[in-house]
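Lecture notes, unit on binding sites. The following record was shown on slide 14. It pairs a sequence with 6-O-phosphono-beta-D-fructofuranose.
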Amino acid sequence: MQRLTETKAWQALDTHAKEIRPQHLRQLFAEDDERFTRFSLTHEQLLLDFSKQRITATTLDLLRQLAAQADWQGWIARMRQGEAINHTEGRAVGHCRLRAGEQAPEEVRQVLVRMADFCERIHSGQYRGYTGERITDIVSLGIGGSDLGPRMAVHALAAFQQADLRVHFVSNLDSADLAGTLTHLNPRTTLFVVASKTFTTLETLTNAETARNWLLAAAGRHSAISQHFVAASSNLAATSAFGIAPENVFAFSDWVGGRFSLWSSIGLPIALAIGFRHFEQLLAGARNMDEHFFSAPAESNLPLTLALLGLWNTNFLNAHSHGIFPYSHSLGLLPAHLQQLEMESNGKRIDRNGLAVDYATNPVLWGEPGTNGQHSFFQLLHQGSALVACDFIALARSDFPLPGHHSGLLANCLAQSSALAFGQTADEARASGIETALLPYRTFPGNQPSTTIILPKLTPFTLGQLLALYEHKVFCLGVLWNLNAFDQWGVELGKQLASRLAPILRGERQDNTLDDSTRGLITHLRQFRS
Ligand code: F6P
């Protein structure tokens, strides 16, 4: 079987990269004053500007040949037909069906109707707690994909927040997370959403059990559980064993992967926070991007283009770090969500044929909102030794407008991507009056590649488009790298070890087969815990 790196399309890119690597973005811009037009795409009002990527028209042609060779459209068809493309778990990949509107499966539409009804009863005050008081606080208990997406979306859509209802998120097993949240809450007016696909995740179940004890201590009766706990899960036996009434369980299927699940009932906290009508717009925005992804040719396909640029930077320019910089406070949790989406999906080294890859796969993804990042780690981007690919994300209009803020914010966003691309030469520094001895320190090499994404404004619809754009980027990279982007076996080993170590830490068991470091740490911890 031919290795990916031996294929014609890969080899052509490899040869081409040798020509491009020495070239500077200054030169590429100087040679082409149509660069922005040539290297930007729009879908409706969403703009993708990749003119500051270190590419030429030939680069894009060759990358698109690689995509054709990988049969990206065939893989889309396989996903849409419900083939078990998550082959290591024997599952289909169905998150697009969750937002397919009229085309969604009956089971999906039924759950959406129940979610709408539940939101309405909470918002109208018809749904009451065990003392008959209305619910004022929702606490979502979940982790990973059952937390990051909804937490990010609720934060992003704060401008759409329902009045008189606060939505909190608790994910950490560290009791400081739950304790810090509960301390401000009243059990009589608090409702818990236990969000867990498997309903077996240690962190979530531990938090749910502690929350249940907190409620029972105040209510003094078991029947309060069914009034104050609802679940989003696909394990109905476990939700029932926990004491959650069947009518309060919002189910979803196993073909919904955790990191793609905010569109399912895992998104209930979003719908509660912003109202069901807005949640539907979030789904509609994602559906709109799905339709674009499924039908647009390679030349105008935004998600495919984003993926191809990611592959080019990783495999041919050797950028193994990728920064996500939303110039939007509301999108502040987007980097954390994308971290799971990208790194849990394509942070892999075994391909679909079971062979170890001989090429780099997903880069390390990280980020912070601008302008905060500018005053901390941006120094490394400007003058450090690492090549870091960057995504700048900005809103044309502020979601919380105050006079004098937004133009300054946008100016900073554009200034950073420009400074990273073009840098500052010693001659330019000298011309601006820098003394000779300081010139090496005041020179900026530039040539850091970046993409800028601009949304007209942040709404449930545009957020849906943006999130689906990145989801499909991940899908395409999985196809291009020949990986299964939908399993996550890598997180299992640590979980197994933790369950083995917990009884040893509690002093209930001994294990002489542990490594010396772990044994030493346990001895030390037990000394200070006793
Ligand atoms: O840690 C891995 C993982 O399986 C994630 O993929 C998932 O989003 C998270 O755990 C939570 O799982 P669950 O929803 O089953 O509690």
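Take-home: Residues 143-146, 196-198, 201, 204, 258-259, 344, 488, 491 surround 6-O-phosphono-beta-D-fructofuranose (CB under 6 Å).
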